[in-house]
Amino acid sequence: EPEVTQTPSHQVTQMGQEVILRCVPISNHLYFYWYRQILGQKVEFLVSFYNNEISEKSEIFDDQFSVERPDGSNFTLKIRSTKLEDSAMYFCASSEAGLHSPLHFGNGTRLTVT
Amino acid sequence: EDQVTQSPEALRLQEGESSSLNCSYTVSGLRGLFWYRQDPGKGPEFLFTLYSAGEEKEKERLKATLTKKESFLHITAPKPEDSATYLCAVPGNDYKLSFGAGTTVTVRA
């Protein structure tokens, strides 16, 4: 069964550094998402991406964050100048038809900012 | 404001002891309700989508039902491998998928 893959599975970085989290969505899906889950808290929406542009973003997704689909298969989340509070699991998801179809999630990247 | 509330927070069951999880939502004009399973350190795994009151979906020992205000996930004769956190999610009026905090189910052999 096709799946969403994310790399790396764990990323440790120092405060102030930039990180890029990578995702390969399911190949025939058109909608892409990033969510995050701080330890012990809810899964929370960051951003949705369709037709090569951001379609929705949350209040969390400020100028520190950016997303890109650099080629036909990858979808990336860049976090600039990381802060301690950015430590979380970051999940990529994709869907065929936006929220009219289920989102399929990857297994996440655990980001630890020290 | 919370759009999705799940209860209980945690549920400890003996193998074979059936139970139900609740998900209540406050969005108007429901555009679908999704149930996911999440294992520790993993991403949410899609289980069901429900779109209209009265709808039911089943998968192995799980059955999801939907009313106008809430959804239930019934676990029938659970096994230890059913231990996981079960998440409910709905698209909000802003078209962003909002998750509940989840119910952590532990099934003891």
Distance between the termini of chain B: 39 Å
The total of helices of chain B stands at 0
Report strand % of chain A: over 45%
Task: Give the uncertain stretches of chain B in residue-range form.
Answer: none
The largest β sheet of chain A comes out as: 7 strands, mixed
Number of extended strands of chain B: 11
Task: Please tell me how large the radius of gyration of chain A is.
Answer: 13 Å
**Percentage of residues in DSSP E strands of chain B:** over 45%
Largest Cβ-defined interface:
A-B, 25 and 23 residues
* Helix content class of chain B: under 10%
CA-based shape of chain A: globular
Count, helices of chain A: 0
The chain-level mean pLDDT of chain A equals 94
Order of helical and strand elements of chain A: EEEEEEEEEEE
Structural class of chain A: mainly beta
The radius of gyration over CA of chain B amounts to 13 Å
Textual characterization of the structure:
The complex is a heterodimer of chains A (114) and B (109). Chain A contains no helices and eleven strands. The mean pLDDT of chain A is 94. Helices cover 0% and strands 50% of the residues of chain A. In chain A, strands 2, 4, 5, 6, 9, 10 and 11 form a seven-stranded mixed β-sheet that branches. In chain A, strands 1-3-8-7 form a four-stranded antiparallel β-sheet, with no helix packed on it. Chain B has 109 residues and is mostly beta strands. Chain B has no helices and eleven strands. Chain B has strands at residues 4-7, 10-14, 19-25, 33-38, 45-50, 56-59, 62-66, 70-75, 84-91, 97-99, 103-108. In chain B, the strands form two sheets. In chain B, strands 2, 4, 5, 9, 10 and 11 form a six-stranded mixed β-sheet that branches. Chain B has a five-stranded antiparallel β-sheet with strand order 1-3-8-7-6, with no helix packed on it. The mean pLDDT of chain B is 93. The A-B interface holds A 4, 6, 33, 41-45, 48, 56, 58, 91, 93, 98-108, 110 and B 31-32, 34, 36, 41-46, 49, 87, 89, 91, 94-102.
